[in-house]
Amino acid sequence: MPSIERIERRLKLHDVRVLMSVVEAGSMAKAAQRLGTSQPAVSRSIAELEHALGVRLLERSPWGVEATQYGEAMIRRGLAVFDELRQGVKDIEFLADPNAGELRIGCPESIAAGPVLAVVNRLTRRHPRIVFHIATGNAPTTYRGLMDRTIEVAIVRAVGPLLNEDVLRVETLFDDTLVVAAGARNPLARRRRIELAELLLEKWVMPLPDSVTTALAAQAFRECGLELPEPTVVTPSLNVRNRLLIIAGFLTFTHGFAHALPSKPAAIVPLPVAMPNTRRPIAIITLKKRVLSPLAEYFIQNMRAIAKPFAKSK
What is the 3-state secondary structure of 67-134? Predict the structure, then answer.
């Protein structure tokens, strides 16, 4: 009998779960408490797993119990196995009752408040028992969530080469443009055309300096032979930026999709500023080797429908 078949007969998922718990807790005693079992039972599971695999999975260090390189390899694959099992249970639940289900999405806050909100609004009206978990963060954080399987679908602004392209499935939805936004009552909102140079002395609220939006804004000013104006307020909060536009006459850079969806704030408008080309693709990213749940497929299908008008306007 080939060795892999012998291992399959001896290996138990419960023992893999115990290994993951021990490494996470840092000791067998703490893992036993978390699992609601005894320390000898935890030790026995680890011993059986090591015997089945023929390698040492744990070692002691000054910081507690740690995984060896063999243990890390087993945990890495174990995470994928348990994730697939969880997904299988969710798939069955969704197939048994398409009106219910759970989906974890990762995206920047601006996309969460734009296309993602539009799709969530559409789906929850049709299926009020569907639950969406939306994790907002920058692109590296979102990619990490995909790789760690804490999210199933990522929607990001694809700028530059993507990491781990061999394991990521990328589908471009549409190309988005950068726009200057203001409160609807701002006198600039009544203008028919504005040159970027005219806005240098305005009050600006900007996202963080290392954000994609700020980088694109700086590029737009450079292409016009100008320096990016010094912002009065710098904040990652989309809500704070929007409030400053409405109540204090600030300007900011935002994205075209934010003003072309039913969920857009009525009190905020894009200004008719002559801008250089700042088109960048908005993409759905998933793991190639992860079978998408029916709810994820349904969400992506609706995201394509929401994005279709933008894709046609390229």
Answer: ECHHHHHHHHHHHHHHHHHHHHHHHHHHHHCCCEEEEEEEECHHHHHHHHHHHHHHHHHHCCEEEEEE
Are the folds of 97-175+280-312 and 178-274 the same?
Answer: yes
Going by pLDDT thresholds of 50, 70 and 90, the confidence category of residue 271 is very high
Q: Domain 3-77 falls in which CATH fold?
A: Arc Repressor Mutant, subunit A (1.10.10)
Cα–Cα distance between 150 and 144 in angstroms, integer?
Answer: 9
| CB distance 142 to 151 below 8 Å | yes
Helix (H, G, I), strand (E, B), or coil: what is residue 185?
Answer: coil
For domain 97-175+280-312, give its CATH number from 3.90.280.10, 2.60.40.10, 3.40.50.300, 3.40.190.10. Answer: 3.40.190.10
pLDDT in tens, 47-88: 999 988 889 999 988 778 999 999 999 998 888 888 888 888
Residue 101: its pLDDT value, please?
A: 84
Pull the structure tokens for residue 8. 């399959």
Check: CB of residue 250 under 8 Å from CB of residue 242. no
Average pLDDT score over residue span 269-297: 88
Q: Domain boundaries in the chain?
A: 3-77, 97-175+280-312, 178-274
Element (H, E) at 214: helix 212-223
Could you give the CA distance from residue 52 to residue 46 in angstroms, rounded to a whole number? 10
The hierarchical CATH code for the domain 178-274 is 3.40.190.290
Residue for token pair 């639950």: 131
pLDDT score, position 1: 39
> Cα separation of 126 and 59, whole Å?
52
- 3-state DSSP call for residue 105? strand
Contact by Cβ (8 Å): 207, 228: no
CA separation for the pair 95, 106 (Å, rounded): 24
Task: Name residue 95's beta-bridge partners.
Answer: none
